[in-house]
Design goal:
Elements: H1 2-20, E1 25-26, H2 27-34, H3 38-50, E2 54-57, E3 60-63, H4 74-87, E4 95-98, H5 102-110, E5 117-120, E6 135-138, E7 142-143, E8 150-151, H6 153-160, E9 164-169, E10 173-175, E11 179-182, H7 186-196, E12 198-204, E13 216-219, E14 226-230, H8 235-244, E15 248-252
Parallel strand pairs: 4-5, 4-9, 5-6, 9-12, 12-14, 14-15
Antiparallel strand pairs: 1-3, 2-3, 7-8, 10-11, 11-13
Helix pairs in contact: 2-3, 4-5, 6-7
Length: 260
């Protein structure tokens, strides 16, 4: 019995790891990947969804927002550390852009500065626990479930109306050759415009994304004034960021519980 429970736990952990590296997956796809029945996968997803780790919509499963994921995950702890460090760079009176990044979203709750305005295209801002200290402006725009980002001309028109002191964005990867890149095309135009319409640029980036590049370009690497990453970053990765043209790199300390 114990061996069976361990096997199930490992499969569920493997499902989470798979979802962390991609946008979504279908039940049939997961059943084939793990060589089990669709019924078994549905039980796994029931378990994970019940614990706030995944969400299901239109027959597909996607990883839940970082705000609802388990605190023992190394990736989530890294995101929390990055978000906390980013929040410290928001000052009284700032107007800031925040893109659809889950790390940037988590930062909003941690801001302690007063009289801050947040302009964001992340629809999940509505799920943050209130009361919030900030004034929130949600851009509106085109929504493509299950993604939380709002894109298209409506979102762009709203962003063009503002000149923000700072922007805080995440992306899929950064490299010296290709700069900031994304694995989804609709969000790139919004992210690029947020950079153009702000004076200081903060890139919130898990260490595993350093040196990675994806299909859709957002901006050259030198557009990132400051990269905030986690302490999983190696010296080589930090050097890579500076070689790419990043002006400042901050490594946030991640606390890992025993056995995590």
């Amino acid at each position: 019995m114990r061996r069976s429970e361990t096997f199930v736990t490992r499969r569920r952990e493997a499902i989470m790891r798979l979802l962390e590296g991609r946008e979504s997956a279908g039940v049939g796809e997961l059943a084939e990947r793990f060589d089990v029945s669709p019924l078994t996968i549905r039980r796994d997803l029931d378990y994970l969804e019940g614990r706030g780790m995944v969400t299901r919509q239109y027959g597909r499963v996607t990883i839940a927002d970082a705000l609802g994921r388990p605190s023992g995950s190394r990736r989530v702890l890294a995101k929390k550390a990055i978000a906390a460090e980013a929040a410290r760079h928001v000052e009284d009176g700032d107007a800031i852009f925040v893109n659809a990044s889950s790390t940037a979203l988590e930062m909003i709750e941690l801001i302690e500065a007063d009289d801050v305005s947040v302009i964001t295209n992340n629809s999940k801002v509505m799920l943050l626990k209130g009361p919030l200290r900030q004034t929130i402006l949600l851009t509106g725009g085109t929504a493509v479930p299950p993604r939380a980002s709002l894109t298209g001309e409506l979102a762009m028109d709203v962003i063009r109306r503002y000149q923000a002191a700072k922007c805080f964005i995440g992306c899929s990867g950064i490299s010296a050759e290709h700069g900031l890149t994304s694995n989804t095309v609709p969000e790139t135009a919004v992210d690029s415009l947020m950079l153009e319409q702000s004076r200081e640029h903060f890139l919130l980036l898990d260490s595993f994304k350093i040196g990675k590049s994806y299909t859709y370009p957002i901006a050259p690497a030198h557009m990132a004034d400051t990269v905030i990453t986690d302490d999983g970053a190696t010296d080589e990765q930090v050097d890579h960021l500076y070689m790419a043209g990043v002006k400042n790199v901050i490594v946030a300390t991640t606390s890992i519980p025993e056995g995590a």
